[in-house]
Design brief:
Elements: H1 18-30, H2 33-64, H3 72-120, H4 123-128, H5 131-173, H6 176-223, H7 225-230, H8 234-287, H9 292-333, E1 355-365, E2 368-378, E3 383-388, H10 394-401, E4 409-414, E5 417-418, H11 424-429, E6 431-434, H12 445-450, H13 458-467, H14 471-476, H15 494-508, E7 512-516, H16 524-538, E8 542-546, E9 558-563, E10 566-571, H17 573-579, H18 582-601
Parallel strand pairs: 3-8, 3-9, 6-7, 7-8
Antiparallel strand pairs: 1-2, 1-4, 4-5, 9-10
């Protein structure tokens, strides 16, 4: 069976090359072209100063070998030697200061673009993805952007410049033999490093994959802490987490073992090159064609080249690893946006708020049809209630109204405007929802209410809380509106979370309201209070109510009954009861359940 990549796993053909990575980062880098150019100038000066140190050292050794010894020449050479040493460090640090903003800002902008794109992706993607794995990919990708820029622009290029200049000096001052040995050593070093690094990358990718899986399992388990406790499955979760950690451990150990092979091989090649060059230099000194200073110069050049050569091997490994991390982050950027605004999309103009579902068909996939020929109108300022058994397609209507998905047949309009012709931002600005499963941000109550309209004043937040009958409860808390609600709002009860969600929607003040079983988590007394409040609010707005408790929608202007995605009945509460059809059956069933529950609550 062919492998189908998930949002957490980049497809095998999606390999990011160095050229591709820079092409995608080019617009961000172009903004800082002057900083990059200045940093390069500083770096070239630093490299020239580094190369100048052995040259001055040679002259100093030769000057000291003269009899009688002149005093001024060694002193000037010592000053020059110290100045060049200082210049090497000074200009390297100046390069770092100038380039720091480029690294940080480019990394930030690309990561923000990924974050923005993730929010732009359809609900279908987010239902399939693993939050922990995606977060880990973005985190590693953010670091990889900085690493890639630093390693390539300011490590590889200067090293190649240094090697070129040193080889040129060796040829001009001595003969081709020195340059040939140096270049042969460099070529063998690079070829060996590339070959072994490519071999090692499979283990690095495996370690990354295991790390993402371990992080995903950990986040998933901790987010569902209560469920783990309910079923006493702490041991199961630990074993599941440890299985990922074992895979990570094995991949990491293999990666470290292969690193040892790489380091030993590199050291062997460099040592061999150094020995050959020193042998040639020693022969020259013995023959009288080279001075003692020349021997020191060649030795210093070789030691100086050995350091960037070793560094170049590490840099190559880091670049390949950075590209591996970037390919996962770029993979997220390449995820197709199922629901996108058309090029000519305009802002939704809400004149009254009439909503029409015109012969709507929909299925989450081709093999699973959910809605069939749903045709209904919600006049401006009126309330439509939708009832039906679980899986009938009630909540799907709300998702389609928000355009989390596009209909597969028919169309949905607001005041005659097809939802596919307007911008998603303007559409969602016009609609407010109180969902059945309210999830709050791990922040304060104030933040969660203000989320309905960021920038709202404290008075407006309090007014919305009063309307949702949650202000008194908030004031009773030690920290009031600054009370933290915990992960997904778990510090609050279901009813408290629902009232905060209602306050948030009231603060948004939308033209169209959706209540997706909005009072299902409330006790009977609170439910009646809030139902009355919601009725007053809905009187001025177009309202879609998705209901489980039929007692909450008896005053709706129209009620439709869905069965297997089809409308089987419609009318007012009284009309549907008189019809004695499916709605009447549901009503009778719920009345019996409520009566049985009340009897069970009666004492002895």
């Amino acid at each position: 069976m062919p492998h189908v990549p998930t949002p957490d796993t980049p497809s095998p053909e999606r390999r990011t090359t160095l050229v591709e990575a820079f092409r995608r980062m080019a617009p961000d880098l172009w903004t800082y072209r002057w900083r990059i150019g200045l940093a390069l100038v500083f770096l070239v000066v630093a490299k020239l100063a580094t190369i100048g140190v052995p040259l001055v050292l040679k002259e100093l050794v030769d000057a000291l070998d003269v009899d009688p010894l002149p005093v001024a020449a060694p002193l000037m050479l010592l000053v020059a030697y110290g100045a060049l040493r200082l210049s090497t460090t000074l200009f390297q640090e100046l390069r770092g200061v100038v380039f720091a903003r480029v690294l940080a800002r480019t990394s930030r902008r690309i990561t923000l673009r990924v974050f923005e794109h993730l929010h732009a992706l359809s609900l279908r993607f987010h239902l399939d993805r693993r939050t922990g794995g995606v977060a880990r990919d973005v985190e590693r990708g953010m670091t990889a952007v900085s690493d890639l820029l630093d390693w390539t622009i300011y490590t590889i290029l200067p090293t190649l410049l240094e090697v070129t200049v040193v080889c040129t000096i060796l040829v001009v001052r001595y003969d081709w033999g020195f340059a040939i040995i140096t270049l042969a050593t460099l070529a063998a070093f690079i070829a060996f490093t590339f070959a072994i690094t490519e071999w090692r990358l499979r283990y690095y990718r495996a370690a990354n994959e295991a790390d993402s899986q371990a992080n995903t399992h950990a986040v998933d388990s901790l987010l569902n802490y209560e469920t783990v406790k309910y079923f006493g499955n702490e041991g199961h979760e630990q074993r599941r987490y440890d299985a990922s950690l074992v895979r990570y451990e094995e991949a990491t150990v293999k990666s470290l073992k292969t690193l040892a092979v790489l380091n030993v091989g590199q050291a062997t090649i460099v040592s061999t090159g150094l020995a050959l060059l020193l042998w040639r230099a020693a022969e020259g000194v013995v023959a009288g064609t080279m001075t003692l200073g020349d021997l020191v110069l060649v030795n210093a050049f070789l030691i100086q080249l050995a350091m960037p050569l070793n560094y170049l091997g590490m840099v190559y490994r880091e670049i390949k690893q950075a590209l591996t991390n970037l390919e996962r982050m770029f993979g997220l950027l390449d995820e197709h946006q199922d629901i996108a605004d058309r090029p000519d999309a305009h802002a939704l103009a809400v004149r009254g708020g009439e909503v029409r579902f015109e012969h709507v068909d929909f299925g989450y996939d081709a093999n699973r049809a959910i809605l069939h020929d749903v045709d209904v109108v919600i006049p401006a300022g009126r309330t439509l209630a939708v009832v039906g058994t679980t899986g009938a397609g009630k909540s799907t209507l709300a998702r389609l109204l928000f355009r989390f998905y596009d209909v597969t047949g028919g169309r949905i309009t607001i005041d005659g405007q097809d939802l596919r012709d307007v911008t998603q931002r303007s559409l969602r600005d016009a609609i407010g929802i109180v969902p059945q499963d309210t999830v709050l941000f791990n922040d304060t109550i104030r933040y969660n209410i203000a989320y309905g309209r960021p920038g709202a004043t404290q008075d407006e937040i309090v007014e919305a809380a009063r309307a949702a009958h949650v202000h008194a409860f908030i004031e009773s808390l030690p920290d009031g509106y600054d009370t933290k609600v915990g992960e997904r709002g778990l510090k609050l009860s279901g009813g408290e979370k629902q009232r905060v969600a209602i306050a948030r929607t009231l603060l948004k003040d939308p033209a169209i309201l959706v209540f997706d079983e909005a009072t299902s988590a409330l006790d009977t007394r609170t439910e009646k209070i809030i139902q009355g409040e919601l009725a007053d609010i809905a009187r001025q707005r177009t309202t879609l109510v998705i209901a489980h408790r039929l007692s909450t929608i008896v005053h709706a202007d129209e009620i439709i009954v869905l069965e297997h995605g089809r409308i089987v009945e419609r009318g007012t509460h009284a009309q549907l009861l008189a019809h004695e059809g499916r709605y009447a059956q549901l009503w009778t069933m719920q009345r019996r359940e409520d009566a049985g529950a009340n009897e069970a609550l009666q004492p002895g």
